[in-house]
Design brief:
Elements: H1 6-41, H2 53-84, H3 93-98, E1 102-105, E2 107-122, E3 128-131, E4 137-142, E5 149-150, E6 155-161, E7 167-171, E8 176-181, E9 188-189, E10 196-199, E11 203-211, E12 223-227, E13 235-242, E14 252-260, E15 271-288, E16 293-295, E17 298-304, E18 311-321, E19 325-330, E20 337-341, H4 343-354
Length: about 350
């Protein structure tokens, strides 16, 4: 074991202490530097100096200005587009045909005062026939039944006479449709019993009821417009008969139209409205009611554009009217080409454009 003097021992102790403290001091210094760095990083961004701050602020101001200018441009473009709404509607020839658009030239016409009457379709009794057996007999065969179309002379049924036991036939007395049928095979028929009723419905009767206060206005041969609702086409005829008596129950008179009915559109039993045409007034511009379209608070007619390749709406002021036509007081001139039918499609197309959807044609 070595012997150390006190001074040397103290020096050795200090040397050991210094060597032991070195790493600790280095660590403290490093931590101090890290703390300074962390402190610098913890400064809020808005407190840190940035040599590009002025440039960034300028760019932000520039971006906002550009954005505002773009918004203004977009608003102006949108306003300009809105200003274009309600312009010319261009349609292809196929669209015009598919949607049933018809065009006419504005001209003078006649507006009638009308008397509106309720009525009913009846079978034309002048064109009806009843078929009965001449002798008592038993039905042996049936050739025609209810609803069948027959020609004059067609065999309807065969009956065997009870007296002679010989067959005889029931024959159609006219062309028409069997509207009543009352026999069965093996049935015994008596003379005078109506087995068939045949009616020619190519001309039917429309019986109109006239209140006594209106009877002085109604005369034979006046024109009448017949309607039975949107499902039926309107028809026109003339009064063929005005009854001389008043019905005691209804207190109405009878006015009858013999109406041609070649397509069997109007069937007996159908309720109808008859507009009797009274006084007529000639006016400068008259159009079908189908030409005048309600558009918001206005009434409009779609007219051909100047180049003839489209249609545009025109506000009009209607005047006198009847059940089918309207006079135009203002907005449409004689000679102008206008849409007389199919304007509702153009209205829908125009409204679609007003909502910003544009044309799909």
């Amino acid at each position: 074991m070595k012997n150390y003097s006190i001074p040397k021992l103290i020096a050795a102790i200090f040397t050991c202490l210094f060597l032991s403290a070195g790493p600790f001091l280095s660590l403290q210094a490093q931590e101090h530097e890290d703390h300074d760095d962390h402190a610098e990083e913890s400064v809020p961004l808005e407190m840190q100096a940035d040599p590009h701050d002025d440039h960034a602020e300028h760019d932000e101001h520039t971006d906002k200005s550009a954005h505002n200018e773009k918004d203004d441009d977009d608003h102006e473009d949108h306003a300009e587009e809105e200003g274009d709404h309600g312009g010319v509607i261009e349609l292809s020839a196929i669209d015009i045909q598919d949607f049933g658009i018809e065009v006419q030239t504005a001209a003078s016409g006649t507006i009638h005062e009308e008397l509106r009457l309720q009525g009913e379709v009846k079978m034309n009794e002048n064109r009806m026939g009843h078929v009965s057996p001449r002798f008592t007999g038993v039905v042996t065969s049936i050739e025609k039944r209810l609803g069948d179309l027959v020609k004059q002379g067609d065999v309807l049924a065969t009956v065997e006479s009870n007296d002679t036991l010989r067959p005889f036939q029931l024959i159609a007395p006219l062309d028409g449709t069997i509207v009543s049928f009352h026999i069965t095979p093996g049935e015994s028929l008596e003379p005078g019993v109506v087995a068939y009723t045949i009616s020619d419905t190519s001309v039917i009767w429309v019986d109109l009821r006239v209140y006594q206060r209106d009877l002085p206005k109604v005369h034979q041969d006046q024109g009448v417009r017949i309607s039975a609702g949107h499902e039926y086409p309107e028809a026109e005829g003339r009064l063929s008969y005005v009854g001389p008596v008043i019905d005691e129950t209804t207190r109405t008179g009878l006015a009858r139209v013999a109406l041609p009915n070649p397509e069997n559109t109007y069937r007996p039993g159908l309720f109808v409205i008859g507009n009797v045409l009274l006084d007529a007034h000639k006016l400068p511009v008259v159009v079908p009611r189908t030409a005048v379209i309600a558009y918001g608070d206005e009434r409009v007619i779609f007219v051909e554009s100047e180049d003839g390749h489209g249609f545009e709406k025109k506000a009009v002021i209607p005047g006198q009217g009847d059940s089918t036509h309207l006079a135009i007081k203002q907005g449409l001139s004689p000679g102008e080409r206008y849409v007389s039918k199919g304007g509702f499609f153009l209205k829908a197309d125009s409204q679609k454009e007003d909502f910003g959807d544009g044309h799909g044609h």
